[in-house]
Amino acid sequence: MMVNPNIRKKELKMQYKQMKQDMGIFIIRSKANNKCFLKATPDLRGVINGTRVRLGGGVHPYRELQKEWDEFGPDNFTIEILENLEYDKDESKTDYSEELEVLQMLWEEKLAGEDLQFYKKRI
């Protein structure tokens, strides 16, 4: 029996939309100096990949980070997930922007206490 490819495509799209992405916060840390970039996001894998592509293409919005990425090279930076944010047991909750914002602030405070400097968005 032949399955209609359009029906299969719709099923796969629906499955993808129902998947829960890993959410949380990640850091890009320079090995050359004491600077870092932090980002809390509902889609860790997608945003990390997108950030790598932007940096590799020279179009990251944080110009200072982009300049040093170009200058020192990608091998002089580490990218790591600092913390995953768990989904609520309540399946109806879909907006985690407040929790991600709080997570970002907590990590900024913690890392500032460790004397890390943050890349500024514009220079």
Description of the molecule:
There is one protein chain. This protein is of the alpha+beta class and 123 residues long. The protein has a single domain (21-85, 94-118), classed as GIY-YIG endonuclease. The chain is built from four helices and four strands; from the N terminus they run αββααβαβ. A four-stranded mixed sheet has the order 3-1-2-4, with helices on both faces. The mean pLDDT is 91.
What is the CATH top level name?
Answer: Alpha Beta
Mean pLDDT: 91
Instruction: Tell me the number of structural domains.
Output: 1
Strand order of the largest sheet: 3-1-2-4
Fold topology:
Layout: H1 5-18, E1 23-30, E2 35-41, H2 44-57, H3 63-72, E3 77-85, H4 97-113, E4 117-118
Parallel strand pairs: 2-4
Antiparallel strand pairs: 1-2, 1-3
